[in-house]
Amino acid sequence: MNKSELIKKLTDETHLPLEEAGTVVNIFYDSMKSSLIDRNRIEIRGFGSFKIKEYCGYTGRNPKTGERIAVAPKCLPFFRAGRDLKEFTNK
């Protein structure tokens, strides 16, 4: 399911106009992004949690040339499925 399909599903189930449903979904996404940018953890009970993991820099190799390169530290979003979601998907 992508964002536009989610908006359509919300419109079908709540009878909200398409623009309002789009606004609701965008507010939800923007709120989640803001929380993750602020390094806050997001937990949706029964579904899962999101957090930002910080990775240290390291020395890697260019696979094509074999040249050593420095890989900068980075932060990546990480999702961990909740117990209910795991149980539901393993039926």
TrEMBL record:
GO terms for cellular component: cytosol. Keywords: DNA-binding. Coiled coil: none annotated. It comes from the Bacteria. GO terms for molecular function: DNA binding; structural constituent of chromatin. CDD domains: IHF_B. The keyword Acyltransferase does not apply. The keyword DNA-binding applies. Belongs to the bacterial histone-like protein family. This is Integration host factor B. It comes from Candidatus Desulfovibrio kirbyi.
